[in-house]
## 1
Amino acid sequence: MKELSVNNLLGIKYLQPEDLNLIFETADQFKEVINRPIKKVPSLRDITIANLFFENSTRTRLSFELAEKRLSADVVNFSAASSSVNKGETLIDTVNNILAMKVDMVVMRHPNPGAGVFLSKHINASIINAGDGAHEHPTQALLDAYSIREKFGEVKDKNIVIIGDILHSRVALSNIFALKKLGAKVKVCGPNSLIPKHIQSLGVQVEPNLKKALEWCDIANMLRVQHERMDNSYFPSIREYVQQYGLNKTILDQLKKPITIMHPGPINRGVEITSDVADSEHSIILNQVENGVAVRMAVIYLLASKIKQYEN
Amino acid sequence: MHQKLLLSAKEIKIILQRLACQLVENHKHFENSVLIGIQPRGSLLCERLHQILIEDYQLQNIKAGKLDITFYRDDFRRGDKVLKANETEIDFIIENKRVILVDDVLYTGRSIRSALTALQSFGRPSEVELLTLIDRRFSRHLPIQPDYKGRQVDAINDEYVKVNWQNKDGEDAIYLLNN
């Protein structure tokens, strides 16, 4: 297979396992490119990409922008805080106005779940979802799976536990879809109030006990508690959360084998993970960030190849 | 489909020996010269030449690399062309080096143009030469000519030159295919 089965990257849910492998194999080559003295290739010199961020972001936005620039695309940035969105413009109007300026591809982060899917039904440009509410964050899941593949050779049959605020996490949902498609075994771990009902229907198991979850897994993916998405109290206090679900060196030292630690960022040091664990040799948190650029280059490159401007 | 044998294993062997000999004539000990094969098929030829230079001329220290040009092609988004990239493996700096680009068939010259652009990502070579096993005359789109060539072939446009290698395709042979 030499082409993605989709024209937009709205969620991992819509991808085939072969799509994931094609993205990874392409990302391998881009990873080599971004480690060259000159980290840029001319592939997308005739493509313009708009980064529309209706919600705050540091890492994802920088990573996308770097990926686009290293592919030689022209890039325009937009953030909701400084835009006409505050003046009452609708999403479709905002995007159509941007597309009228001849933009080929849109990277969008939006606080509402399904914003990307909605937009894809109304506009005629490639869309990459950079996170929509608590729904999906496909490129994060791709770079997480890519980092696991890089460290272990393959994702298949690996035991992965996702720990923390599963309920409000788009990273968790996208990760579950991606890891299951690649044949990994997945468990989720966290306070009952932060585990969505019926999550078992996605083929994952719930393990409320942190110690047991860690003993079972090869890789632990730690999630931040998303206070900004919480409308009431899901647990009594941060202190109690840390005692039950915080990852620290003491608990890791009690395990029989070392496990690999991942975190999508931003990290709340001292809450879901302590500093010594986040910075330890078993942590691949910064590899994830480096791989993020290569994986996003692969996604943009593969989607851009489907925009055929030169056909009659 | 017709296929005509252009070169047999024996003829290829003689040509490879000659090309290696010409390279040694121009680059002597290769102190400042490197071989770079264009992926995917040019690097197979490059490996063979590299092997001859090591075995027959005792040039153990020659540096050889593989260069993938997928991201530098000028036909991206124009039809169903190869999208998937191959590995690039250049673990040396080419700044001020004499680079010998190696490809199996020179046809339109567009791959070589892409390779020249791709090379710039690894530094500024002092000189770039081109070696091809088959030079298809009269089909160039760009002003590019080889410095070393195995055999010149007059092929018309809907013909295709296929180079087979022992370690990849089970035999050393070059065919002219005609639809």
## 2
Amino acid sequence: MAHNRVLQWATFARSWWIYDAYHQCPFESAKRLCIFLQGQHKPIYHPLSDIGDHVVVINTKDISMKNEYWRKWRFHHHTGYPGGYSQTSAWRLHDLDDTKILHKAVYSRLPGNLLRRRMMRRLHLFPDTEVPDDILQNVTDQIRQVQLIPKPIHKYSKEDIDNFPKLFDWPEEYVIDYSKKKKDEDTEKYF
Amino acid sequence: MAASIRLGSCIRRILCQKTSLSPLNVVQRGYRNKLRDELVQLYRLREEIGPEPLRHRSEWANWNYNVELFAFGKRLGEDLKEETLRTVFSHKCYIERERKKREDLGIDLQTVSLSLEDNEQLAEQGEVLTSRYIKGYLRHVYPLFFEEGISAVHDYLMSEEMLNYIGRHIGITDLMLCSDFPAKDSTVVKTLKALIGAIQQEKDEERAKRFIHDFILPQLIGVDVNETWKVVNPMGLLTAILNSQNRGLPEPRLLRQAGSNTVMAVYHVGIYSHKQLIGKAPGETISIAEEMAARDALKNLMKTADSRPALLLGKLAEDLNFDENKTNISAIDFIKQHEPKQAAEISS
Amino acid sequence: MFLTFLNFASRQGGADIQWKRHMYKRIAWSYYGRKRNCFRLSIRTIERALRYSTNSGKPKREYYNNIVKIRLEAACWEHGVLYDEFLKTLDESSIQLNRTTLQHLAIYEPRTFQSLCDFTVKRQGELGLKAATTTTPSGVLTRGML
């Protein structure tokens, strides 16, 4: 009956968000996703109350990492038994499971209290855009990506490249693309 | 180190021992040696005697009824005569009991008369005035609210619970002359009504209305008037209102939803009339949300929404003039008059 | 010299020791194990607990201030305003509401908070070089009044 009752319901209802991890840094993404999982985007936030939202993440197989991180970033694991310690590099873990890196990044970012497992269960990770319908129907809104997706040179058309303002032309013998280098017979004979 | 401190404190205790009992109780810091014994003794005494019986304030030695009566009038800012105040507080049951007591003692009532009137008539007068004024005021501040709603809010204010609450907080419980103790709620309510009646009789009606304004109407602060009136069919009433204003019939539309495949689903439904949003509300299911949206639209149309201006109370209401005989429209009559033709055919 | 009587005298005049210890028992009633009943053990825990409670004043304040900050950031984000800009604008415009009041407004009176956010957006549009090119906004708030 009461109108105020439904207002209460709406205040504490969980909404569902979708996040596209395509070409996104997993650690920066985790920072943003944790805000939504903990409910820090709501004015009624309290660290002890379970008011976080659901987050659906797609394209986790296409996450990106800067510098040498794919080779050099290591994930640690200990089974609990003597000699049970192991290290795995990021590229290898990603090879084993497409969603594991983002899962670990978010898990380590969340506060280590009893709510952490529950919050993790509200994080739905999918390696590509194939999401079950019953999950996709719940989704209300999307979370903005943390970084701009870079556009590689081969995505630009030839027209765009030609029209790009240039200060000077490279000399003809200057090698930009090694595969397109003209064969010089004078030097070739020495090899 | 520790030993030296202990020795020092021992010597200090010996030196500071009380040699003679002082008549004055000197305030000391620290622990009272005998306090525990005293408290234990008091506790045992209390166990023997049992709990303190509930006694009327007049049983204490420093009770002066005349002074208390005078102070009561002054406290409320009403300079009522002493006799009037006496009448306000004397109940029929009390007078009868006194009369019987005298008869039992063999006192002739004709020679030593009981110069007390009961407050029955005053209470009746006060109740009529209070009821009339509250309704008039509510109709004035909520002109578009339906008569059923006005009655519901009026009943809320005039309920025994509410008047008892007000009466006890202005301190009429101790002053009442009645046979029941502890005082019943109904007796307190009757006294409060009699007080209003007495102000009307001795001063004037305006003064009594000011009293109602200052003591009873402020209880509406923080009360949601829409919650007091239970609308059974909000959509029907909304349709009738829109039909009477020649606006389009209400069209519910789903504004947004979240978690629709889960147990914690929430739907926001808005109600449109001629493509204009007139109310919206959330709900667990679409049908609940639709009903609540209709209620919200009704609130907006009756001008009792949450964003309504504050009530006219205190200084704002000093020059308030309104016609008390004017009544608002009854919802039942309104629906009968303005029900859309198609709906009427279907229902018949 | 016979000095033993001094000892007796001090013991007679001393406070009721159990009564004095009762004060500590009032704190120790909820402890677990022997530190609940044995005074020697409970006094250590109690003193540490009292020390903690004295020292925890500052962290407690920081903890609650942080919650208030997160809530206000969330409330500002809902209306597309930055938290720092929001507080700065309110301060410059002499809207004297502290953060505790603002978070209560955000929770219990969201429409009031929204109006404050709208005000911030409008006010920020009037600041800087861009203001010279824009026209005076219509409505109650004008540049002259602020």
